[in-house]
Amino acid sequence: MGRTLPSATQIVLDELDELRSFYDALRRSDQLILDKFFEDVLQHRAAIANATNLLPIEVMPFVMLLEAYKKNDRAFGQLHAEMQGLARAIETFASKR
What we know:
By secondary structure, this protein is mainly α. The chain is 82% helix and 0% strand. The chain has one domain.
């Protein structure tokens, strides 16, 4: 007997396919950004499939925001560590003078 319910991957791919005309109307630079968002969405397809009380298209922006937050948080953490390293280097340099 065949599968009666679509897989989580198929659900997400169907939603992304619904956005095709919107995607095609965008500039190439914007399409590349959306491609990254769509990659993030595909990483969370199981969670999207489990959000049964919402449509997948309603959950996808939350997934995109989640991934954007994580990337920003990592970037800010790296920047903070660099700033601390520079501050220590300046202190060391100043104490040697």
